[in-house]
Amino acid sequence: METVKKNNHIGRKIGRIRELRGMKQETLAELLGISQQSVSKIEQSETLDTERLEAVANALGVTPEAIQNFSEELAINYFNNFYDNSFSNSQGTFHPNNCTFNPLDKVVELYERLVQAEKDKVTYLEKLLDKK
């Protein structure tokens, strides 16, 4: 039985990482200082020189090794595990939409700080006027 070696198409990996990051080819092109057509050619390339790979990785916010070792299956598995395990604590599962504080208290606190800042500004300006 013969095993088929999977093709390590670096351009497809770059394109998929870019898509997962919600980035358009135009945006990546701007970050790299090249045209959108050049990004398209990169994503069609099976290989990429080290210098270009480092530049693309930097623009995508990943390491060159992350691009070389990227696997769609592993990425999906990672995110599924992250979602399943990241929000648990000793009292059970923490849901990211549940606040651990009262949002109204935070709004009131911010408002009070803004009012105090305005009062301080008025006091400072009055002192400046008194000096003249």
UniProtKB/TrEMBL annotation:
Residues 14-67 form the HTH cro/C1-type domain. This is Helix-turn-helix transcriptional regulator. CDD domains: HTH_XRE (cd00093). It comes from the Bacteria. It comes from Flagellimonas pelagia. Coiled coil: none annotated. Gene3D superfamilies: lambda repressor-like DNA-binding domains (1.10.260.40). Pfam families: HTH_3 (PF01381). The lineage of its organism: Bacteria, Pseudomonadati, Bacteroidota, Flavobacteriia, Flavobacteriales. One of its GO terms (molecular function) is DNA binding.
